[in-house]
Structures are given as structure tokens and as C-alpha cells.
Amino acid sequence: xxxxxxxxxxxxxxxxxxxxxxxxxxxxxxxxxxxxxxxxxxxxxxxxxxxxxxxxxxxxxxxxxxxxxxxxxxxxxxxxxxxxxxxxxxxxxxxxxxxxxxxxxxxxxxxxxxxxxxxxxxxxxxxxxxxxxxxxxxxxxxxxxxxxxxxxxxxxxxxxxxxxxxxxxxxxxxxxxxxxxxxxxxxxxxxxxxxxxxxxxxxxxxxxxxxxxxxxxxxxxxxxxxxxxxxxxxxxxxxxxxxxxxxxxxxxxxxxxxxxxxxxxxxxxxxxxxxxxxxxxxxxxxxxxxxxxxxxxxxxxxxxxxxxxxxxxxxxxxxxxxxxxxxxxxxxxxxxxxxxxxxxxxxxxxxxxxxxxxxxxxxxxxxxxxxxxxxxxxxxxxxxxxxxxxxxxxxxxxxxxxxxxxxxxxxxxxxxxxxxxxxxxxxxxxxxxxxxxxxxxxxxxxxxxxxxxxxxxxxxxxxxxxxxxxxxxxxxxxxxxxxxxxxxxxxxxxxxxxxxxxxxxxxxxxxxxxxx
Length: 516
Ligand code: NAP
Description:
Oligomer: single chain
Strand content: 15-25%
Number of strands: 21
Structural class: alpha/beta
Number of helices: 14
Bound molecules: NADP nicotinamide-adenine-dinucleotide phosphate
Largest sheet: 9 strands, mixed
Helix content: 25-40%
Distance between the termini: 6 Å
């Protein structure tokens, strides 16, 4: 029998979610955990998205961990480089490196209902864990549409999240596909240096001004000297967004005022009425994520840019054909076409009780209890799970709520004593999702007259939380044990005492040496 490593908790992914989980585990006194990361460095989506112009739409002081404030953010809205550096800093400051296994892509994880643990096969070997925390992230698997003839394209083709930095676009004819948050940052960043830029716009976006500015040395010194000022700033940013949520969730008509501002933002940069008409959305603002930019519209008005009002439908050699029939020649294609969000790719690799994969369980749409646990997948929880996304505020707030839930989950397991696992009751999962979907009915994401990646293939919104971040914080403060079944090993099953007794803190990430 082969020896293998056993840990109390295996965290998947070293992005914001996974690193946050690692910090929280250490703070809870749990040191017997690993973070399995497929790449060679931390950062998740902020490592992978290095496209020109990549930056965050949530202000820096709110888009950071509450337990790791950064008084030195250089701008009100941070660029990718600074956010990635922040995550590297968090990794070092909280001593997380010894826990992280790089190059350890999870291939498959299977629940063992006799031993009550997860068997995990990774690119770097096999291990078992009492609890799995999946923080693989919703923006981790690029989506490239299946365009007929794409294989025949002779030039470079890449996705925004896999930017080819060796490809020099200077003077080239470049086609950008999509008008989401990524594409609208790429367009102004590359427009000055490309020969011709053709933007394939399937649906126009609502774009608001971006109140970005440098944070000066005096302001930063104040934050360093008086940490309370950083907290106040964060609180203010949070409070304003918290007040705005109701317009998205209950009173979408109030958003008409915001539409006027977005129209003005376009009108001040785009003087050509035909182009303006092309760029004007026909759905309520907020239905898709509201985008922020001061340079997107000015870039589109430049003479070397064409906006094609249609998606990319076909490729014939170097000719790109749009759904409206128009054609454009290109030397390179950049797909800003988003990610596999509602069909969470890791779900294919999770095999729960009874040999059923999470993907099969979620065939008709993702659903989890309080965004974390799926029925039939004991001791497995996800960070940024179903219906935990936000339309207007910082995902870090939601991640931290889920970390509270994780911490309480582990405390409950400890309190049960002996070997035990928790499996979400199907009726509790259903009840939670009924409530979520009931509240969803009035939201702008469902009623605003658009399709978006918030909705799954059945048109159900399985991504966004239809409330305030404080409501979610309250709902995830504690694990309600009545919502779970407590599992115990089958009678007579002899499990080694050191194989994760459920008794709390381990002694590090050293191998427990469990015979399998
Ligand atoms: P996205 O929002 O999913 O946008 C994908 C775009 O591709 C949409 O405009 C979509 O059109 C278009 N598309 C898909 N197939 C197409 C085709 N065949 N032809 C033409 N267009 C096509 O993806 P994303 O821009 O990468 O953003 C994903 C998420 O990442 C964001 O919503 C946000 O949460 C995050 N993000 C944030 C920032 C930021 O903070 N600034 C920046 C980047 C990303 P339709 O609209 O018609 O579907």
C-alpha cells in the first residue's frame, strides 16, 4: 500500500479566495492545510489577466482584504500589476508560502464515504483531505466562442486572459471580439499603436466615467500614520455601494438616472451620430455589469477604429465575417469573450457521494447552500460559489463572508468530536435557492432586457447575490447544523487515528503518513 499525504484542509487555488482561506485557516489555528495551485505563482485571475490596460473597477481600498489594508495604493483604482503585487505581499506577510503547492493542478477529487475524506489527484501527486475548499474562481477558464473557420486564420489568436506578450501588434490590423470589461480596457490601450482596429460588438455596453486618480504621497502618509483613516475610507466606499444595491435588486427603474449620465459620457466623446447609435444599448443599465472608462469612447472615435455592430460569425482565412454580414481583414484576433462562469469547469472533476460528479448534479444549473455547500458533496465547499457574485461592489467582501462560514464549519466539525463530515441536506439547499430566486425576480439582472454571463443556459441567474453584502454577511456568520446531515464512518471501519480526527489544529503541512 502506498503512503500518501493527508491534510485537514485542501484549498484549491491561490487567488484572492484561496489566499484568503489560507490566512483564515491559520488565524483559526489550523496549520495542517495545503493550497493547491496549478500555476507557478499566486494571484489567480490577477496573475492570468496581464492584458494591456488591465485594471480593477472597484476602488483599491475596498478591493483588498479588510485584514490586510494597504495604505500605499498608488491610485484610487488599481492596475493589475499593483493588485498582483498586493497578493504576493499578502502571501509573504501571512507566511503562506510553505502551504502552497505550485504546479499542482487538481485533476480529480473523489469523496470516500467510508473514510470520510477526499482523495485528490493533482499534477504534483496524490493526497487526501478531510475538507476541501474550492477557490478555483469563476474567472479562471477563458471562453472562446466556437467560430466556424477560426482554424483557417493565419495570424495570431489569443484570449484576453492569455495575452501573448511576444506578439507585437504595432501597425497590425487587429480584431477585438467582445465589449465586456476586458475588451473595453484593451481597446484604448492598443488603439494608438495598431494600424487598424476592428471591434466586433455583439451587444453595446453601458459605460460610465471612471473617477480614477493618483493617490498622492501626503494622502498615503496620512493612511500610514493613522490606519483608522484607511478603514474610514474603506467604510465610506462600502457604505455608498451598499446604499446603491436596492436600485439593482428592487427598483431597476431608478437606474434610468444613471443611464442619462452614461449617455452623456458617450456623447461628449463620440460626435458621429451613426457611431453613437451603434454604441447605444437597448437594455436597462446594470442588467450587464456597468463598465467604467474615460478612454474607451474616445478611442472608438479615432480614425483607425471601426465598430462592427455584430458578433464574429465566421472566419475565412484572414477575413472576419460579422453576423451583420460585414467583413474585415485582420492580422491578429484578440478574444475578450469572457469565461466559463455558470458551467464552473472544476465541477467536472469533483466526484461526490455515490460517484456523481458536481457537474452532473448541477446539470440544470448551479446551486449551493449559502453559496458554499452542495448536497452529496460532504465537507466540500466553494468560495465565490453560486449566487455570491456582486453587480456593484467588491467581491472581497463576499469572499470574507464565505471565510467566516468556513471557519464556523470547521469549528462545528471539531465540536462534533471523532471523525465526522457534514453533508448539506437537499431540502435546505432547495429552500435557500428558492429564496434567492424569489428575490431575483425583481432585479435588474433578470428584468433589464439583456442576456449576460450572470444567467446560465436555462436563463437562471446562478451567479449574483440579490441583496446587500451585509445581508450575505449575516447569512453566512454561522453554520446552521439543522441544514446538514452529520456523517460518521460506517461501524467497524478502522480509520487511522492521525488521519484527520476532525479534532482541530494540525502540526503543519508535514505528511501524516497514512496508509491507503
Ligand atoms: P464578459 O463580460 O463575459 O464579456 C464577453 C464579451 O464577449 C461580451 O461583450 C460578449 O457579447 C462578447 N462575445 C462573446 N462571443 C462573441 C462573439 N462571437 N462575437 C462578438 N462578441 C462576442 O467578459 P470579460 O470582459 O472578460 O469580463 C468578465 C468579467 O471579468 C467581468 O464582468 C468582471 O467581473 C471581470 N472583469 C473586471 C474588470 C474590471 O474590474 N475592470 C476587467 C475585466 C474583467 P454579449 O454581450 O453579446 O454576450
